[in-house]
């Protein structure tokens, strides 16, 4: 979605850039405008806009957020491999210490 679409989605819910900025305690609406125009990155502003509009982050900011498939198992496998690598390193360190 581009800046105009995001601003319109907020307006449909009764929000202005100023109101969003005030709710987040930001200096002014320019901060929100820069995030919506993708000139500045703020996960907090992006999440708040998503919560207000009810539109997922993946649709609001597709260049920053990618939808993760529900059947994706890549993340748990990576963690398991990391634990195994750590355990292997510890075992090797202990075996070399015993020999010395």
CATH top level of the largest domain? Mainly Alpha
The N- and C-terminal alpha carbons lie at a distance of 63 Å
- Quaternary state of the chains: single chain
Give the mean pLDDT.
Answer: 80
Number of domains: 2
Structural class: mainly alpha
Describe the largest sheet: none
Rg, Cα atoms, Å: 22 Å
Uncertain stretches: 77-83
CATH architectural name of the largest domain: Orthogonal Bundle
**How many beta-strand segments?**
0
Number of helices: 6
Strand content: under 5%
Order of helices and strands: HHHHHH
Under CATH, the topology of the largest domain can be stated as 434 Repressor (Amino-terminal Domain)
Helix content: 55-70%
- Categorize the overall geometry: globular
Could you walk me through the main structural features you see in this protein, from its secondary elements to its overall organization?
- This protein is 67% helix and 0% strand.
- The chain contains six helices and no strands.
In short:
By secondary structure, this protein is mainly alpha-helical. Helix content is 67%, strand content 0%.
């Amino acid at each position: 979605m581009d800046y105009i679409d995001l601003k319109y989605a907020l307006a449909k819910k009764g929000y202005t850039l100023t109101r969003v900025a005030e709710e987040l305690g930001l200096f002014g609406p320019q901060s929100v405008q820069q995030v919506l125009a993708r000139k500045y990155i703020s996960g907090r502003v992006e999440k708040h806009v998503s919560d207000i509009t009810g539109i997922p982050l993946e649709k609001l900011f597709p260049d920053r957020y990618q939808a993760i498939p529900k059947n994706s198992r890549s993340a748990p496998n990576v963690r398991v491999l990391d634990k195994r690598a750590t355990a292997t390193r510890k075992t090797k360190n202990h075996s070399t210490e015993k020999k010395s």
